[in-house]
Queue: 2 jobs
Job 1
Amino acid sequence: MNNRPGWVFYASLLLLSIFVIIGIIFPAELQAWADVGLEFTTEHFGWLYLFATTGFLVFCIAVAVSDYGHIRLGADGEAPEFSYLAWLGMIFSSGMGVGLVFWAVAEPMSHYMAPPLGGAEPESPEAASLAMRYALFHWGFHQWANFAIVGLAIAYVRFRMQRPGLISETFRSSIGHHVDGGIGHGINILAVVSTVFGVATTLGLGVIQINSGLVYVGDIGFGADQQLFILGLTAVVFLLCALVPLESGVRYVSDANMALAAFLLIYVFFFGPTDFITAAMTNAIGDYFANVMGMSLVMTPYTGDDWVERWTIFYWAWGLSWAPFVGSFIARISRGRTIREFVLGVIGTPVLLSTLWFSTFGGSALYFELFEGAALGEAVSKEMSSALFATLDFLPGANIISILMLVLIVLFVITSANSATFVLGMFTSKGVLTPKNWLRIVWGLVQVMVAGVLLMSGGLAALQTISILAAFPFMVLMIFMAISLLKSLRDEQRQIELHEALTRGRIMRLLEENDKRQADQIDEEGPARSKLEDHESG
C-alpha cells in the first residue's frame, strides 16, 4: 500500500494552518466569531446533541446484547493483542484522563455553588446531592458511548473486514466505492480537524490544571504566558515519545498513569472522609439511574437558561470531537476482542472507575465544604482549575500528594497527545497501523499550535466553545456511521445464517444418504438371512 500522505493530509494541514494564523493575528476576532457560531449551533441544534448521544448509548447496548455480540473484531478464534488489564489501562488513560483530573472537584463544586437548572438552593445539602448526580451523569455511559461507536466501527472494518483503519471505510457498506473519492476524503478531513480541536481542548485543560498546581506547589504565576511555556515543555516530552513504537511508548506511560492514579485514588479514599465518600457514591449512583432519562433529554425552552449548553452539551460535544481520536486508538488496541467484550470494556469498566474517582475527589471536596468550612466553592468561583489542589490541602501530606497529582496530570497530557499523533498519522497515511515518525511529529506540532491559539483567545471559554463547534459536523457523520455499521453487521449475520443453513442442508443430505444406504443394505441382506434361518431350522 502507498502510505505517503495524500489529499487528506495536505487539506487538513492547510485548514488548521489557516485557523492558527487567524488566531495569532486576530485572537479577539476569532473568539467573537466562535461565540456567534456557538450561539447559533446551540440555539438551533442543541437538541440534536442530546438525542444523538443518548441514541449512541442505546445502540451500543443493543448491539452488545444481540446476536452480533459474539462477532470477533478479527479472525474467528484470534487472541487479543494486549492483556485485559493493559487494554483497560490504555482505554482509560487515552480516553478522558485529563478531564477526570480537571473536573473531579471543579464540576461538583460548581454545581454546589450554582445548582443545575435551579434544582436546589445554592450551597445546600440538596445542592451537594444534585452536584454529584450530574457529575456522574456527565462522566458516565453517554460519554463513553461516543468513543465506543467510532472504535467499534473502525475495529470492525480494520480487523474483521481487513480494510484500512480510516473513518471513511466505515461508510463503505452504505456508499460503496464513493469512499475512495472526494466524499471519502472529505469524511477523513473532517475527522482529522475534529480530532485536532478535541485534543487541543484537552491539552489546554491539562496545561491550565498544571499551571494551577504549580501555583500551589511552586508559587508560580497563573496566566497565558505561563500556560504557553508549560505547553511548550510538555510538547517536547510527548514529541520525543512519538518517536518510539506504540507498544513501548503509550503502553508504558499509560501503565504508569494507571499505577499513579490508583495510588492517589486509594490515598484520598482512605485518608479522606471515607464514610462520607461511600455514602455519597451510593446516593449518587441511585440518583443517576433514577433520573438518567430525564437528564439525558432535558432542555430549557421555558426559561431560556443556558445551563444545558454550558455543561451537558459542552461535555457531549467534547466527547464527540474526541471520538475520532479515542475511537481509533481504542480500535487499534482491541484486535481479537468480541463486540460484546469491546462494549463492556469501553463503556462499562471506565464508567466504574470514573464513578469511583468523582465520588472520592468530588465527595471529599463537598465534605470539606459542608462540614469544615473549606471555602472551596469560593476558590472555584475565582479559578476553576484551582479546586483540586485546594482540596488536597486538607489531606495529610498535602505537599507530596499535590506534586504526585501534578505528575499524574503531565502523564495524562503526554499520553493523550502522543496517542493523538499516532491516530492523526494513521488517518493521513491511508490507515496504516504504523505511521511515519515525521508525520506524527507534524501533527504533534499542529496540536500544540492550535492549543496555544485557543489559550490566547480566551482560555477555558475558548476551549469549550471550539469543542462544541468542531463536534457538530462529526456528530452528524457518526449517526450515519452507526447506520452503516448496523448494515455491515446484518450482512455478516445473513452470511453466517446462510452458511449455517447450507451446512445443515449438506449434513441432512449426508444423513439421508447414509440412512438410505443402510436401508438398502438391510433390504439386500433380508432374503439371505431368511434362507439361512430356514436352513438352520431344517
Job 2
Amino acid sequence: MNMKKILLISAVAAPAIFAATAYQNQVGFMTNGLKQIAVVDAAGKDVVFKDKDGNAALTVKAPEASMWKPANEEASLVDFSELKTPGTYQAYVGDEAVGHPIVIADNALEDVTKASIKFFYFQRSSTALEEEYAGKYARAMGTPDTAVMYHESTGKEDLTGTFNGAKGWYDAGDYGKYVVNSGISTYTLLQLYQQNKAYFDTLNLNIPESKNNVPDLLDEIRWNIEWMLTMQDDDGGVFHKLTTKQFAGMVLPEKATKQRYAIGKSVTATWDFVGVTALAADIYKKYDKEFAEKCAKAAADARWWARNNPYAFFTQPGDVGTGSYTDGNAVDEQIWGATELYRISQKPEFLEDMHQFLLTKTRRKLQGWQTVYALAAFTIATNPQIFDEADVDSAKILIFTLADSYIEQMNNGYGLAIDNSDFYWGSNSVVANKGMVLVHAYILTKEQKYLDAAQGILDYLLGRNPLDLSYLTGWGVNQVMKPHHRPSQGDTVEAPVPGMLVGGPNSSADDCAKKLIDKDAPAKSYYDNSCSYATNEVAINWNAPFAYLAGSLQAITATGKVYEIGSDTPEKYDVDKIPFVKANFSKQAEGNRLVFKNGAVQVERKMRDGTVRYFNLRGKNLK
C-alpha cells in the first residue's frame, strides 16, 4: 500500500488527525530552476526538506491553501527554490514524509528530454529496431511501405500502380502515417532544435545515425520528412494519409500485413507540408545542401497546388475507418505555410499568400493539428529581421494574449496554468502546447514569470497532479503502465515503450474510461488501461510539445542562454514556379456544424454539391 493510501486510512480512523500529502514532479528539479510542490492539509505548517542523511536543508512554512478547480481540492503551493545543492531530498510535515524523493540536479530534465525524443525512434516505420538502440523493445521490421497503392480518393487514374512511401513515424497507438499530424509535430521538433542548437548539437539519443556528423535530433526528424516527401504527387499536391483501410489489431508491426494505401489529397495536408519542408530547407542546408534544396522545391510545388485547390478538403471515404484529421478550414495552414516559405525566399507572392488572411483577434488560439495560427506567430515573432513591424506586432499580440491568459489561471493551490476547459481529448498535449507558448513568451521578453509557468506545466505532467501520476511512460515513481499503443500491447515486455506521453484526463471520454469521469474534478477523469484510447493513447503531436517543453527548460536553465531573436537569417532560396494541374474534387465541403443526432453529437457537413453528410467526432463517416 502506498503512502498516500496509508495516510488517507489514518485520517478516516482518527478524524482529529490531518495527515498531509504532497504532489510533485517525480523526475527531478533543475539546480537553478523553480522548485514547487502542492501540499494538502499543511496550511500554516512547516515543511522541512531533509537530505539523504536526514539533516534539515530548508524549512518553508506552507502558505494558505487555495482551490484548484480541476482537482476540486485545496492545496498549499510550497516553493523550495532556495534549495540549490544537488542531491536527493525528502519533504516532511511534522514527522511524516510527504510526497516522493526529490531529486535536484544540473541535468534533471535531460533524461526525460532524451526519452521523449527517442519515442519517435520507437515509432519508426519501415525498419527493424535493433537491440543496440531499442534494448528489450527491439522488434522486426513491419510495414515496409515500398509498394503503397493509391486509393480512389487520391484522384489518380491508374489505381493499379504503387509508390514507395517508406520511412516516417507511426502516428499514435496505430500504424497509420498522417501528413496533417506530422505537420505540427515535425515543426515543433524543428523549433526545439532551432532555438537550442548548442545543446542539441551534442545530445546523443543512441539511434542508428548517432555516429554521423549531424545532430541526432535532426537525424530523427529527417526520418519523417523523407516520408513526407514521398507523399507529394506529381502535380505538387500532397496525399492526406498512408494507412490500411481499417485499423490493425493490437499486434506488432510485422503482423500488420494488410495492404496500405495513400488516401485522399487535401489542401490542409499540402499547406502543412509547405510549412515543414520550407523550415527544413533552412535548417538542413548546413548538413545536406541537396536535401535542403529538395525540400525548398517541394514546398514551392506544394504551394502552387494549394493555392489553386483551396477547397480540396479531406473527406473520409466510406470504406476507410482509420484516423481522418478532417478540417474544413485551411486559412491557418495557408498563413503558416506561406510564412515559412516567405522566410526562406522573401518572394512577394508568398507574402501575399500570408497577408490574404490576418492574425486577427478570433485567430488567437492555442496550436493543435487543426489550428496552426500560432505556428506562424512563433516564426514571425522570432524573425523581426525578415518580417515587417506590423506582422511582428500581430504575431506578438497572439502569443502574449495566450500566454498572459495562462498566467491569470495560476492563482490556485497547485500553481498551474490549467483550468477545467483543458480536459478534453489529449489534455496533456493541450497543456504541453501551453508550455510551448509560454516558452516563446519568455524568449521574447526574458520575463521569468513565463518560464516559471512553463515549469509548472511540466511538473504537472510529471506528477504534480491529483492522481499522483507521471504521464510519461518509464519515468516517475507512479508511472503509467497500460497505454493504448499497439507495439506495447503486442510485445512480451511488461513495461510499455518508455518516453511516451499519454493523452491524459478527459471529462468527455466515450470509451472504457467513461465510468471514471468526475465532472466535479475533470483532472481525475483518467483510466490507465489500454482499452482507453480517449485518455491513454499516445501520439506524435502529444510527445512533440512535451519534448519541446522539457528540452527547452533543460537547455535554458542549464546553460543560462536564451535563443536570440532575429539570429537565424536563412540564405535565400530562389524557388521556381512550376506548372500546376488543378485537381477536380466534385465533393468539397462548404461548412461544418455540430448537431445532436441519433443520441450523439455529430459533425454535419454540407458539401458543395448540396448534399449533407454526417461524421462522428473522430471523423468517421456515418451512413
